[in-house]
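Our consortium's second objective concerns turning raw sequence data into structural hypotheses that experimental partners can test. To show how far this objective has progressed, the report includes one record in full. It was chosen at random from the queue rather than selected for favorable results. The single chain below, 153 residues long, was entered without modification.
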Amino acid sequence: MRQFLTALFFLFSVISFGQTTKQVDSVTFCFNKYKVPTGCTAKSEYQVKCDNYSIVWLYMNEQMLQTMPDQFVNQMAGQMKKFKKEPITCYLLDKEVKGYKISFKKDNGTGYQLIVYGVANGQPVLVQLSLNDEPKTNDNIPEFPRQIIRLTK
């Protein structure tokens, strides 16, 4: 199981930091298609990276959804400095789901992430939204990811 979690963390790291494949102009999240915002890049249909945020998602099955999100967050905790997590309830495509608001020390300050997981449009999914600023309200989430993930309805 530890090898699986290491592979998962590696997958998110690679996706988050980009690849050298061709860019795409739209992405699909849980059967909904979205145009990649101007000034942002998507090197796969499962991620969007902009100057002030990145969002990546991983489709799962129901069994994986039961254990993998907590294991993923706990593994992150062991690899980041000054790691703090706060359980939250939020929304994926307006469906109430569980997640964590995470903060951690980066070289140039504090980094923030929302790790959110649940079933959206019938698809079990885990979403990792990385932000430069703390997400206190929906207004702190940039426009593109706010179409997918929100703190309140």
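The partners drew two points from this record. The mean pLDDT is 88. Residues 18 and 72 are 20 Å apart (CA to CA). Both points have been shared with the crystallography group to help prioritize constructs.
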